[in-house]
Task: inverse folding
């Protein structure tokens, strides 16, 4: 585990990273081509979103064959070349294992549909009730979580899209199949795994209606989840591998168990409470300005709570399911650079392993799409329909989708200022924000003060400074609204971190004089104790 404390992970959304053959879709050879760029960032691991054979209803999170590369993204030979080349450069791949469900195109599900009892028991088939579906649970992508199969007279469970059928982890044969897939990819030389929505794998013994919510309380961190993860780690031989579990609506107590090294389940977890502080009453599709008090209190709870019990967090504000943090929490125009840097500093100096999502290192913003035809994501398209049916006007529905769509995070990587941002020579599968003419890798490589340069520095500092990788963390609560402040301590060294997430000036107190360690306003020198005025979106880090 200790090995990951100094590491930084880079996340690639394969479809949008780099297209090597002009079909408008990112691919494995594109990744191989850009490995020197990733090396120049200093990252240790690269997490790639799924590129396995799939009908791509959910862009690869609907896997039809876990052991084969989808021809759209390349061949197994390309994949092996990509792994070998990363290895040569001293970086390791983490592949994305979608084990809560398979695509309905997977041969297991096809056999189940033909009534083969062995494979029906790989999934969750149930009889209906007088009201119809077995329970009233709601799919995370909208609509019922059950789909009726007339030829079988039964329903199957799909917590996500109707084309993503949930696997039955209570069946030991399923668990054995999945461990075998892990061993297969380990055999190809990858160094770690990301496990998709892995805290949803253990369903309750009895399925009942949820009269308080959408059903998630019955299957989130379910009854046997810890046992199954221990089994997967043991059978898959995951000791020494970097593993991260994506935990949907989880709890601190469970995340401690998932990641405490004595439990042998996972190295670290993604939790999402901090990315719901702008959901109105917990509803992603109801807009609210971010509540920074809530954000601070969540960081305090999770950072200090995991520390007390020897758990380990993955640190992130962006991924392929989230709108861009720079647009969502800060100011992506007037204070573009300051905003990108304050958010980066805020999380990279915390206790945990930071993840950089492609494009955040140059400050890519939300997509800014103006019409529903620009969107591709199944969730966005479903919810656009649901919002319209619920009576929202087209403009209202578009505003909500514009803020919340996962496509905001999926627009192609901005390599240069040319028409398709250097991503493809063809037509990109998803539109590219206009501002790529200025916000792009090529531009930032020329600027020693760029966001990109700042990220390189943060990645390097984690390796150089034990106070960042191993220090303890304590949050400061006596700070003005919109400021998040914490102290890291290791032996005699201390780092004091302040992040002003607002466009207003804020007064904070520096407890002890020290040296300026990091800033996004280009200051230097000694900083005396006492009051100081933080500028808009200022990051101030002092070392003692
Ligand atoms: C995870 C993935 C997301 C996907 C979902 C279903 O949340 O990150 O992209 O749609 O799981 O697999
Ligand atoms: Ca391609």
Result:
């Amino acid at each position: 585990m200790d090995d990951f404390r100094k590491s930084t992970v880079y996340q690639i959304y394969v479809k949008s990273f780099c297209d090597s053959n002009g079909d408008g879709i990112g691919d494995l050879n594109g990744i191989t081509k850009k490995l020197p760029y990733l090396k120049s960032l200093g990252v240790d691991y690269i997490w790639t979103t799924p590129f396995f054979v799939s009908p791509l209803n959910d862009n690869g999170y609907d896997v039809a064959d876990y052991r084969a590369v989808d021809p759209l993204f390349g061949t197994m030979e390309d994949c092996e070349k990509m792994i070998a080349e990363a290895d040569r450069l001293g970086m390791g791949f983490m592949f994305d294992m979608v084990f809560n469900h398979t695509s309905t195109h997977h041969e297991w599900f096809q056999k189940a549909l033909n009534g083969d009892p062995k494979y029906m028991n790989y999934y969750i088939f149930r009889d209906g009730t007088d009201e119809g579906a077995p329970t009233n649970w709601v799919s995370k992508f909208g609509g019922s979580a059950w789909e009726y199969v007339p030829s079988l007279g039964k329903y199957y469970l799909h917590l996500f899209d109707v084309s993503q059928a949930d696997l039955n982890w209570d069946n030991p044969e399923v668990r054995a199949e999945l461990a075998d897939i892990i061993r297969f990819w380990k055999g190809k030389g990858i160094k770690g795994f990301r496990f998709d929505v892995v805290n949803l794998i253990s369903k309750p013994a009895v399925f009942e209606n949820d009269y308080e919510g959408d059903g998630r309380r019955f299957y989130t961190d379910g009854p046997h989840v810890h046992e199954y993860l221990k089994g997967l780690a043991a059978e898959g031989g995951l000791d020494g591998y970097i593993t991260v579990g994506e935990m949907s609506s989880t709890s601190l107590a469970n995340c401690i168990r998932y990641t405490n090294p004595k439990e042998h389940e996972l190295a670290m977890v993604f939790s999402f409470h901090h990315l719901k502080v702008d959901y109105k009453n917990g509803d992603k599709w109801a807009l609210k300005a971010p509540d920074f008090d809530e954000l601070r209190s969540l960081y305090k709870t999770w950072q200090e709570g995991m520390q007390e019990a020897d758990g380990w967090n993955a640190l992130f504000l962006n991924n392929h399911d989230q709108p861009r943090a720079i647009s969502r929490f800060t100011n992506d125009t007037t204070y573009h650079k300051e905003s990108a840097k304050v958010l980066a500093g805020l999380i990279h100096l915390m206790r945990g392993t930071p993840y950089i999502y492609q494009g955040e290192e140059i400050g890519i913003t939300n997509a800014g799409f103006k019409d529903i035809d620009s969107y591709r994501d199944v969730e966005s398209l479903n919810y656009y329909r649901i919002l319209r049916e619920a009576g929202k006007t087209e403009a209202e529905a578009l505003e909500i989708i514009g803020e919340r769509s996962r496509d905001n995070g999926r627009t192609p990587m901005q390599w240069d200022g040319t028409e398709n941002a250097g991503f493809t020579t063809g037509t990109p599968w998803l539109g590219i924000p206009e501002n790529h003419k200025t916000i792009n890798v090529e531009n930032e490589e020329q600027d020693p003060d760029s966001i990109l340069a700042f990220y390189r520095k943060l990645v390097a500092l984690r390796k150089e400074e034990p106070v960042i990788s191993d220090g303890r963390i304590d949050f400061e609560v006596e700070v003005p609204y919109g400021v998040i402040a914490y102290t890291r301590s290791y032996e005699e060294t201390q780092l004091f971190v302040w992040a002003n997430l607002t466009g207003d000036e804020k007064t904070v107190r520096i407890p002890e004089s020290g040296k300026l360690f990091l800033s996004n306003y280009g200051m230097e020198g000694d900083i005396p104790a006492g009051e100081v005025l933080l500028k808009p979106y200022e990051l101030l880090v002092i070392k003692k």
